[in-house]
Every structure is written in C-alpha cells, then in structure tokens.
Amino acid sequence: MASLPDVFRVLNDMRSEGIIENYALGGAMAVLFYAEPTRTYDLDVFVILPPSDRPIVTLTPVYAWLRARGFEAHAEHVLIHGVPVQLIPAYNDLVAEAIAAARDHDYDDVAVRVCPPEHLIALALQAGGGKRRERAHQLFETADIDRTLLDQIMQRHGIPGPWSHDA
What we know:
Layout: H1 4-16, E1 22-26, H2 27-31, E2 43-48, H3 60-68, E3 73-74, E4 77-80, E5 83-89, H4 93-100, E6 103-107, E7 110-114, H5 117-127, H6 130-142, H7 147-156
Parallel strand pairs: 2-5
Antiparallel strand pairs: 1-2, 3-4, 4-5, 6-7
Helix pairs in contact: 4-5, 5-6, 5-7
C-alpha cells in the first residue's frame, strides 16, 4: 500500500531529474511538521519550475512526467500513489521565498521539504479566509515561531500582523 513517503519520493525524484527546480510542502499538511495536524483533503506542494522561454507558466512537462509514471491528473490534483497532490507554481515573491527557505524534514526515513512555520503563517494570512486564519493562529500559538522573523516576513510582503500586540 502506498503512503506519504512514496509521494515524497516522487517529489524528490522530480527535483533530482530537473522536472521542477525546487519544492516545499505548504498548506494544512505542512502544519503537521510544526503543530497539531489539521484535517485536509490534499497535499499542497509549491514548486519552482525550470526556466522556460514560454510567456505563460505551464505544468504540462510536470504532468507528462507524472503521467509517464502512471499518475493521472484529476481536476486540479494529480493522484500520486492515491494521494491527491496539488502542484502550485510559485505565484508571488512570498511563495518563492518560502520555497527557498524550506526546511528539510525526515518523514519515515524520506526527506521532504516543508515551508517554515513563519512563512506558513504569512502565506495563510496573505491568502485570507477563516480556515487559513485559524491555521495561522494555531501555528502562531503552538509552533516554535521566530517572532522577529515572522514580523520581518510580514512587513516585507505587506501583510498586516493580527497578533503584533503579542510579539
């Protein structure tokens, strides 16, 4: 039976084979590495794609590589070993910074890159919505947060800090 480590191996293979330049887990699954897990349907993976001369960002080469290995796209997800994975190209400077700052974690003896908790908080607040604000608050309250770094990230990306009075 396939598991998350199998999915992480595929992500690492994509990186080592140059299909993507870099990646980092984001969203609710990334919270698992820093605080109490939250229920989620899918695995959000931020990716940096190789440089291209195309004017429009496309995941076609990534999907083709995955399809050649038996993983099919379903709506906005690719089912990798039965796990719905959403591959999200870095769409702004904060996401690119979060990928670059990603921490290497070990999950059942498989390396996986995960956005730092400070970036996860900033990403959740930037995206907005009640569920994301709740996740940001949970991380802020329970994870080992570098509050100075969080303030710097939020300021650099123009994100208002709802807990600045606690910092």
